Amino acid sequence: MEIIQDNIDIIGRENYIVQETRNRINKFKKNITESFIELARLLDYARNSMVAGKPLYVHWGYDSFSDYCKNELNMSIEKVKILISISRFIDSSPLNDDPYEDEEDIILDEISQMGWTKADLLLHYVSDNKNFPVHILVFSAEKEEKNE
Q1: What angle do CA 40, 32, 55 make, to 5 degrees?
Q2: Is 145 helix (H, G, I), strand (E, B) or coil?
Q3: Is the pTM of this model over 0.90?
Q4: C-alpha span between 124 and 120 (Å, rounded)
Q5: Angle at alpha carbon of residue 36, lines to 58 and 44, rounded to 5°
Q6: DSSP string of 23-50?
Q7: How far is CA 120 from CA 18, 66, 101, 126, 127, in A?
Q8: Mind listing the pLDDT tens digit for each residue in 53-105?
C-alpha cells in the first residue's frame, strides 16, 4: 500500500510541476516588460526539463518547444532564445563573483528596469568585453536613460 501511495505522491508532484511551470510562464508573459528575467528563467527550465521522461512542452500538447512558443505564447523562437540567453548570462555573470555580491540585487533590478531588448544589447557588450565591470555599465545605461 505504501508503494502505491508513494507513486501517487510522485505523480502528484510531477503534475504540479508541469502545471505550475505553465501557469507561471503565462503569468510572467502577461507582464514581460517588468518580468522578463523571471520569464526567461522559466522558459529555460521549460525547454530543458523532463518530467516523467518527457519535456514539459510535450505535457502541454506540443511536439516541439518552438511550436509551444509560437502557438501558446505568441513569441518567436528567436525572441525566446534571446530571453534564455539573458537568463543564462545573468546566472553565470560576474554578478555572481564575490566583489559584486552586495550589488547583485540592485544590478538585477536595474537590468530588469531597462527592459529585455536593452538588456540583450548590454549583455552582448559585456560578453564581448569579459573584463568590463558590468555594474558600471548597468548604472551608466540607467543614468543615460533617465536623462533622455
Answers
A1: 35
A2: helix
A3: no
A4: 6
A5: 35
A6: HHHHHHHHTHHHHHHHHHHHHHHHHH-E
A7: 28, 20, 22, 10, 10
A8: 999 999 999 999 999 999 999 999 999 998 888 888 777 765 555 555 555 56
